Structure formats: C-alpha cells, structure tokens
C-alpha cells in the first residue's frame, strides 16, 4: 500500500490535529519546526515536539528515515519529519548543519522570502545566486543528507542550488507560475531543471499560490497537476499542502516580518487581506486528503499514478535523500 | 589643539597597548568589538572592555559622544569608541540596533567580506546592493545615530548605502583602488559618491591595502593621501590604520573563515602568506602616529591640513554622526 505523504505543513499543532491526520490517513508529514528561530530557539521547538511524541505515542512519532514511513503504516501512526523554512537555525555556523541533521532535520530552505547568508529569497529585487557560504553549506547538506529546499527562493538562486547540489533538491510547496503567476510559484526554467535532476515539486494548496485563490476548484487544481505531469513527467511530483491549520493571523505577520523590519510587510497578502487566506472548501485540513485523491482520479490519472502523486514519489525521494549512506538520486536520474 | 583619532584598530588589547596609545598621543580610537560574534557574544566582549575601563581609568575610557574626545584630551586619556565589522551582532533583529547603540556601538559595517542579511561583501561574485532588511536597518541606524561603515562591502552595495542613507556614511579603513588595486580598496565612483555626501574615508596601513605591501614607503603613502585630497577634497579624509597589534595569526584565520566554511579561505593572503602581514617599519603600532604626521608635512600639507587629516576631520564627523540629536552631516554637505 503506497503511503500518503504531505510535503509541508505548519499547523498550530495539537492532539486534535494529530487525530485528524490519523482520520485523514496521512502516513507522514514534513512539518516546519523553524522559520526565523535561531539554533537555540529551534532546539526549544524540538523540545516541544519531544513532548508531543511522549504524550501521543499512539498517534505520532518522529521520522528519521524513509523506513519510518513503513513503520507508520504498520503501526497506524503518522511520521513527523522535521524541516526548516529558513537557514536561521544554523545561524552563521556551518557546523550546525550536521548537529541539526542528528536532531532529525531533513529539509532546510536556503532562504525564506528575504536574502539569507546562503541565497536570495523571492521577494528581493536582486538575486545573487548562492553566496560563498551558500556553496559551502549546500556541500555540507549533501554530505550529511539534509535536503535543500528552495520553495521560497528567487530564480537564479534556485537554479544555482540545482546546479551546485550533488543530490536532488526539493521545492516542497509551490506551483507552476505558468498556471498562476505569483512570486512564490516557479518558472518553466526552474521546473525543467528541477525535474531533469530528480528534484521533487510538492503542489501547494495555500490560496495565494492558487489560480482564483480560495475559490480555486478541485478540478482546476488537479487539471494543473495533470498538465504539469504531461510537461515534466509524473515521477517527481507530490503534494505539499502548505497547510497552516488553526494558526492565528498573528502568525502570518510573524512569518512575513520576523524581526527584520519595523514597518508592515504584507507578503503575499495586502492591507485589506492581511491574515491567513481561507482555504478552498475541498481542503480545509488533514481530514481532506481523500478529496485530492478523488480529484486526481477525476482528471484521468490511473490508480497507480494517484498513489505516486499522493506519497509514492515522496517516499522514493526520502529513500534517496535522507542520510549520508543513501545513493544520490540526482546522479541516478541523470 | 586638534585631537589625533584613529578610525580603526583591532588589537590584542592589553595595558601595554593602552600605554602605547598614551605615549603615541592618540586621543581616540574606533575599536572593533565584534566580527562574527552574535549579540550575546558581542555583549561578552563589551564586558571585557568594561573590565579594562575599570582597571585602567588613568589610560582609557569609553567614548559615547564627540565631546568625549575633548574630555580625553583634557584628562590625558584615550577615548575608546566601539564598532562592529559585521552586522552579526544584530543577528536578524532590527531591534538590536538601538540596544547596541545604547551600549555604545557607534559604527557598524553592513558586511564583512561575505554576503550578510543586509548587503554584499567585497569577496562575493554577485552584489545585490542593499537587501530588504538592509534598507530597513540603514534607516534605523540613521534614526539612532549609528554610523554605516562600508569598508569591506562590494561596490554596488556601497553605492546603495550612500544613496539610501540619510546621513553620511564612513569607509573607516581602505585606500583608493587607483593607487593599489585590491578587493578591499575603493573605486573612484565610490570615493566620489562618498565625498560628495560628506562621507569619511580613513586611510588604511594594513599591508594588503598598500602599494608594495609591507615595503610601502611612508612618502609613497603620504603622496597617495595628497593625490586623494587633490581629487576629492581634504575635508572628509582621515586615518584608519586597521592596526591588529599583537594578534596571533590564528585571529586572521578566524576573521576570514569565521564559521561559514569548513575549507581554508586565505582572504587577502595566500597559501604562502597566510598570517598577518608585517606592518611597514614606519608604522609598527600606536607609538608611531608621529611618523604619519611628519610624513604628511613632508609631502607639503600645511600644519592645519595635517591636523585635519590626523583627527580634526574625524572629530567633525563624530559631531555630526553620533546620536539622534546631531544634525545630519549629509544634508549639510549637499
């Protein structure tokens, strides 16, 4: 049985959500444990997760390897896989890459929306590509088996990361810009380079990444997936919902502004729509993965193709990507 | 009596050096208290300085305002003015600008050699100019009266800072690239934009910034100053020796490599000359400021001009630049 895997969530975690993950049949989720947090603050977030794991061993556990997905399926639980949306957690210290890997970090974005020490975010005017430190850190991430995630990065930086990384990278949560032009969605150039090197794209259901936003229809979303699969092949596509379930609007302010500005930055929103946008009615949360499955069947994908899109492709990517001992998927794909 | 002011030193501080400052007639020094240190580590460095101030009140004290230079002259001591060579000390938190100002920070470089969260360093291949956070932080530095220092920054970033800053900026330690081409020396475009906006240039005696390096003659150095004064005017020129007195070579490795790489980076040095270069024989340390004075007289500067170059210009810049209450020198200069 192919697992159901979500390539990215950042919920206001609670037992209620863990129960919904079970009810929704979600076998593994890449969860964001850090945005703007520094190393110590990221460790504090891990401590909170450790408490969740201790209190709810019947629902969730921490996933370290691809094999943990099978364990999740066998024991009827959800594997929680850690990731960071910004390299703030390694501060300016390349030695923290291995330390955070050991603590379970499996994905790290080289940038959030702004310039980082490593690369450029998609909201900057100018794009350096990988910086001197960025090239060093990507090599270290490759060595230990921590996935480079470029979901929020600018074009040249993303292409640089794809080229410089010796292992396939991921864009865990974004859509093709050709379908819906948005700073966070990705160009054909990026998607082509990504798929040609075995890199994964997780389709996002965050309304600002959707054509027609919160009013986007399930059929339209699944049609977009079908067109993307026709263009780039189906093997490296998955879901990365970007679900921010139960989060208060203060959190999206913090995501956008962190502590880098004293002004208001609306990010993908606007003065009149500053908070989290309403999710489409066909995907309100972890109970609704069956809707996506049905939608994919509805646009003509075979049962095997739906399984690949819902988690099979992520599973293979995890097998190739997590840890130093894995074969580099990029070389295999080339 | 015009004071003698050094625009930058990073020595292995000791009572011996403080005594040499007195013997050398140095009234104020902008000292580097932070390179790659984060906020807490920078505070620890301030604590070390507090101990020096407590133990040697007859030799040194912390300077907070331009008026403290007169106090130093009146009491026969050296005013120590804090600065940082990298924005690591504010981490990713704009709120730390005001906090560090309150602790006495009066200069902050927006970058060391690499890309920072604010701008691009002179060793990177590509140059973003000021980032989104960089523009916000420069505005905040302008508000509180903390000087923007672009000594180690790349060309476009430096021009951006000059344009974006509402107050004059400084290049505390560098020389004209036309005299000695080096990544750390500055182009005519930068020096023109700097001087036209009331910004200060401190001439460096660090051998990698000198024509003929450690063998550079005093007359050649002073001739270069004379040519620079002819081209850009004398009003915004001073000395910024970049003296790293008594530092072991391990420190220059740390300056260059911090914790951003696991490889060796030679910076301005090379595999065969990895350590600190030997200082020119006419400027071995704080005892030798009189040699520079004599050299400047030797190339034809008047006594008043020599006084301006040795400290008078820095004093006026401090008056205009430190603190929120000061008039913005840039506006006055335009």
Structural overview:
2 copies of one chain form a homodimer. The first copy, chain A, is of the alpha/beta class and 334 residues long. Chain A has a single domain, classed as Metal-dependent hydrolases (TIM Barrel, Alpha-Beta Barrel). In chain A, 40% of the residues lie in helices and 12% in strands. Chain A is built from 12 helices and 9 strands. The first copy, chain A, has helices at residues 15-23, 39-55, 67-75, 95-102, 132-144, 155-164, 188-196, 218-232, 249-257, 289-298, 303-321, 329-333; strands at residues 5-9, 28-34, 60-62, 78-84, 105-109, 147-149, 170-171, 200-203, 237-239. In chain A, β3, α3 and β4 (78-84) form a beta-alpha-beta unit. In chain A, α6 (155-164) packs parallel to α7 (188-196), α8 crosses α10 (289-298) and α10 packs across α11 (303-321). The first copy, chain A, is globular, with a radius of gyration of 18 Å. The A-B interface holds A 36, 38, 88, 91-95, 114-117, 120, 123-129, 131-134, 136, 140, 258-263 and B 36, 38, 88, 91-95, 114-117, 120, 123-129, 131-134, 136, 140, 258-263.
């Amino acid at each position: 049985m192919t697992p159901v895997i979500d390539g990215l969530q950042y919920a206001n975690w609670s037992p209620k959500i863990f129960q919904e993950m079970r009810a929704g049949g979600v076998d593994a989720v890449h969860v964001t444990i850090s945005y703007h947090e520094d190393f110590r603050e990221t460790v504090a977030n891990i401590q909170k997760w450790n408490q969740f794991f201790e209190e709810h061993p019947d629902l969730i556990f921490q996933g370290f390897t691809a094999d943990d997905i099978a364990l999740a399926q066998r024991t009827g639980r959800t594997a929680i896989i850690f990731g960071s949306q910004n390299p703030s957690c390694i501060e300016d210290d390349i030695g923290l890459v291995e330390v955070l890997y050991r603590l379970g970090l499996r994905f790290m974005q080289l940038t959030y929306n702004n310039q980082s020490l490593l690369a450029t975010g998609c909201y900057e005017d100018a794009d350096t590509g990988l910086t001197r430190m960025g090239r060093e850190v990507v090599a270290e991430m490759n060595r230990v088996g921590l996935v480079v995630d470029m979901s929020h990065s600018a074009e040249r930086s993303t292409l640089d990361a794809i080229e410089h990384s010796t292992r396939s990278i991921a864009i865990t949560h974004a859509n093709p810009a050709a379908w819906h032009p948005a700073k966070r969605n990705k160009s054909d150039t990026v998607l082509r380079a990504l798929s040609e090197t075995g890199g994964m794209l997780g389709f996002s259901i965050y309304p600002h990444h959707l054509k027609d936003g919160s009013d986007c229809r399930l059929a339209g979303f699944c049609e977009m997936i079908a067109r993307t699969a026709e263009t780039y092949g189906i093997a490296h596509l998955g879901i990365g919902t970007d679900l921010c379930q139960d989060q208060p609007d203060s959190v999206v302010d913090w995501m956008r502004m962190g502590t880098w500005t004293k002004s208001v930055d609306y990010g993908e929103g606007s003065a009149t729509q500053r908070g989290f946008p309403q999710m489409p009615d066909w995907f309100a949360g972890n109970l609704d993965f069956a809707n996506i499955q049905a939608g994919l069947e509805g646009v003509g994908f075979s049962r095997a193709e739906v399984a690949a899109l819902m988690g099979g492709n992520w599973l293979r990517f995890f097998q190739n990507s997590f840890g130093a001992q894995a074969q580099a998927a990029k070389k295999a794909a080339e």
